[in-house]
Amino acid sequence: MLLASTALHGALAASVQTGAATVQVAQQGRTVAFSIAPGPLPGALAAYGQATGFQLLYPSEIAQGVSSPGVTGTLAPKDALARLLAGTGLIARFVDQETVTLEKLPAQTDGAAVLDPVTVQGVQSRDPGRSEDTGSYAGGVSSSATKLDLTPRETPQSVSVMTRQRMDDQGLNEIRDVLEQTVGVTRMQRGAMGSDGNEVFSRGFVVSNYQVNGIPRSTVYGFDDSLSDMAVFDRVEVVRGASGLLNGVGEPSASVNLVRKRPTSAVQGYAEAQAGSWSRYRGEADLSGPLTENGRLRGRIVGAYQDNDSFIDRLEERKRVLYGVLEADVTEDTTWTVGVEYQKHRSNHASNAGFPLFYADGTKTDLPRSYNSGANWAYHMHNNLTVFSELKHRFGDGWTATLNLEHNKRDYDSLLGFGTGGSLNRDGTGMNVWAGRWLSSLQQTTVSADVNGGFDLFGRRHDLMAGVSGYYAKRDGADHPLWFIDGYDPSISNYFTWNGNIAQPTLNPTGWSQTDERQMAAYAATRLRPTDALSIILGSRISRWEQIEESHPNGAAGTYSKRSENGVLTPYAGAVLDLTDIWSVYASYTSIFKPQDYKDASGRSLDPLDGDAYEAGVKAGFFGGALNASAAVFLIKQNNLGEVDPGRFTPSGAQAYRAVKGAESRGFEMEVAGEVMAGWQVGGGYSHSSVKNADGQRIMTYVPRDSFKLFSTYRLPGAWNRLTVGGNFKWEGDVYTGTGTERYDREGYAVVDLMARYEITDKVSATLNVNNLLDKKYMSSIDVSGYYGEPRNVLLSLRATW
């Protein structure tokens, strides 16, 4: 079973001689600067892949406990690999244009083993940051911050990468679970899957910028990928801070980029079955490989189905996932990729919120963790169908041109009924059901074209990226009554004994509404290398944004509003200085701009967010990048921050927001990810942020200022090497909402998880995850209602690979 690989950009054509292993290199003149310290072989190979663009595949057991002497200097790739593998007893063999396999040196009577020379034409890796089969928690090359292919140490911002191995080890099957485990990110759940009762925060602000394969989603409600199942994706890259260079508009919190799996050059696949607490059952399968004898056409298909109840009474969730992608080498230098992704999510007996925090007399409530405030007829349904195409051409000298086309069609239908209205009395009376319906169809079409490569100036090599992009997004649907329905009795006779039974109101359409959004932009960034140790990244984006909203009530005059921003300039600047072969310092700046969908109590849209974001820190890459570490400080200044206006609603019945002038967020973050020593992986860190208004008063008090997360696994050596054990520790600091007698405080809490995986055979493994081992009772959200985090639960996974 292939458990380790590195795949990063670069052209290659090689053959390597190691001991008695010989491989010839087509690019005879190519040299690369290497600085790989002696250490565990997996980390050394990862660093080699980052430097050369080679993809290295090998059974993890042949590298476990093996040390590499490392390699330093500017060398031809063949010579560097020879030094890297010297004394390891391994040989290298090319299996296609971009893949090298490592094998144990076979025994020979004369003490030598010779591989036939293999000539490989130069190509770039199709996915330079691929995490699949690496077995690592460390992220590789990423373009999510600047669209330049940079390692974490080369990127002048905080970047967290949730790798495929990390997601598999923790059983993270949904993006909401991935983000909950990501350093510097807080997920607040206050409703069922698919409701608007779930938000993600970073650096004190809501996360609204989502990308898939670097293609940004509209920030209009319903377009984000906050419901995505992870079976489709290789990794998730989270860039904390402002990301206006690539998104154009967005919060200064974080940008979440989900990177899809791609077809592989060799046949591989797996089938997995899961069973867990609350009748959770899941099946997942993945098959990938060449479809023609010459390997020029490759394909991949992924499917998943999950059905589960919940610790919340009566709540049922179900989802279906299907993904297919084809990749063809049209010519030696041109690759065409086409694919389709479909996901369907549904929640039944589903609430949008939890339960009241206070009784009518001002004392705190204490309802059970399993309390469901949703009516039995309430549900949330989301369909997502995406078709996409990528055409990439590789020119000489490492330049590429890429054209991306994507069309995304979505539907959501939420029949709302949740008992959070009114005022709860001690005898269970006083509460009402808020009812309504949200129903819309959404479409987004995106086109982008980019060029990326290197150039020589003043005797040094530099990098350049430039591109144009645009999207058109449309939401339209029938409007229905919300919250207060004429002729409908919403009262709940006894909130404590209520089981969701209440009459379903008649919700006839009251009209229709539509939102159209367009964004067009041109952008460019360059990385200048005035010295070997110093990199300076300069970039800018100029954007045009337009949004039109229409509303047409039955029997009444319609309304029309248009907002637009033209020539919005978003500058970006960053610098990275290498202090040693391991340590670097960096600083970056970018501006903030985001038109807001939030509305105040009068129904008026809040003015756009604007401001500036600064960040500085130190980064380290140990063992050639197998272990990454970082520490950062940040300052974010912005105006017109949208904050929940408690107890107030817009004329349409949605939650009202108020604009905060002069909001400022300060804080710091520390993170580590990767292999500490052979078989020992870690991922986690600490984050602190404090958000205050112009008067120095703390705002967003319901979002934790402090959090600590650390997950680690260790594969036992020797006779126990089939067993991997791990654990997770998560802590969040205190929060509060309200003031005076209506203030609700939640103390900090800690949750402990355990994990164990046993390889039954080389192809079959079983993994057990025990989450919230100590059954800690805590509130995951207290901003507008109370909602508990998950109690202790168990997940058992059985996986077969080939």
Automatic annotation (TrEMBL):
Swiss-Prot/TrEMBL GO biological process terms: siderophore transport
Domain Secretin/TonB short N-terminal as annotated: residue spans: 54-105
Extent of the signal sequence: 1-20
InterPro entries with a match to the protein in the record: Beta-barrel_TonB (IPR000531), Beta-barrel_TonB_sf (IPR036942), Plug_dom (IPR012910), Plug_dom_sf (IPR037066), Secretin/TonB_short_N (IPR011662), TonB-dep_rcpt-like (IPR039426), TonB_sidphr_rcpt (IPR010105)
Record's keyword terms, sorted: Cell outer membrane, Ion transport, Iron, Iron transport, Membrane, Plasmid, Receptor, Signal, TonB box, Transmembrane, Transmembrane beta strand, Transport
GO molecular function: siderophore uptake transmembrane transporter activity; signaling receptor activity
Localization (cell): Cell outer membrane
Transcription regulation found in the keyword field: no
Region (Disordered): 120-161
Entries under Gene3D superfamilies matching the protein: 3.55.50.30, TonB-dependent receptor, beta-barrel domain, TonB-dependent receptor, plug domain
Family label: Belongs to the TonB-dependent receptor family.
This protein's name: TonB-dependent siderophore receptor
Annotated organism of origin: Azospirillum humicireducens
Upper taxonomic lineage: Bacteria, Pseudomonadati, Pseudomonadota, Alphaproteobacteria, Rhodospirillales
